[in-house]
Amino acid sequence: MTTSTASGKIILFGEHAVVYGRPAIAAPVSQVRATATVTDGPAGKGCILFAQDIDEEIRPTQAAADHPLALVLRLALDAAGVQAEPDWRVALTSGIPIASGLGSGAAISTALVRAVLTHANQPALPETVSHLVYRSEELFHGTPSGIDNTVIAYERPVWFVKGRPPETFAVGRSFTLAIADSGIASPTKETVGDVRRAWQADPAASESIFHRIADIVHGARRAIADGNWAAIGLLMNANQQRLQELGVSSPPLEKLIEAAREAGALGAKLSGGGRGGNLIALVDGESAGAVQAALLAAGAKRVLLTQVGGAEKQI
Ligand code: MEV
Fold this sequence. Notes:
Layout: E1 2-13, E2 24-40, E3 48-51, E4 56-58, H1 68-79, E5 88-94, H2 104-119, H3 126-141, H4 147-154, E6 158-160, E7 175-181, H5 188-201, H6 203-226, H7 229-245, H8 251-262, E8 267-271, E9 278-283, H9 288-297, E10 302-308
Parallel strand pairs: 3-5
Antiparallel strand pairs: 1-2, 2-5, 2-6, 3-4, 7-9, 7-10, 8-9
Helix pairs in contact: 1-2, 1-3, 2-3, 3-4, 5-6, 6-7, 8-9
């Protein structure tokens, strides 16, 4: 039996603009995870994928060509050099809320690829895993930048530009983010599609917003390296304003963001695809408790605290 897991993720700065070649900064969220377990089944039964949370059995050989999990399983078996269909049962389960901006789709696929490669005695190298998961992300998202599969496969904070190997970034002083779930499911594919339609209708207007987001992301890299929490917070607020202009915020997210700021957060913004899903708020030792309480009072379904920097491994 082989069990592999994969973390969730948050985008700190630069979501959406990253699809158009601008940089973004992301970090893993290790407290929420997806799990894949491969066991050898009875001979002659073939390979069965079992999505435990929705109680669905998928036969990869019979599934539609564009079924993301069946596709990722087939790709992983190919990459592992497994020729004939193995008699394996592959069970998947996840504690990451779907359509919430925490990378649930990429995390499930990452756990699956890792488990298949490991069960076939092949190394599950981050670059191999990331590349395979990207193929399934194309089905989940439409036109993904590749940031979700990268940050989850490497499970390290990354500075990411589409098409380039991920880089690490310096963290002068570790900082804490409250991650609040609005409880509103919002598939990334939809917001990414809406941003694309707006870009097609008026490329200059969208490009000008992406350009300003890129400036914010570069500023954030410097502020993070300097350990300047006040500057990081202000840049989060500035990024949120640009995301509003892109049309991917929403009144419920705005309400939660406002509640976090009023309770003492140094800055707050949506994270990931937007409209619903999760937001992040920068907190310190003094404000963490008050911000958490304010977010829950304003309707957040749950609030996690995560640290960026400090003990984390660097690329
Ligand atoms: C989703 O986590 C981040 C987006 O920028 C989409 C992408 O980069 O593929 C919204």
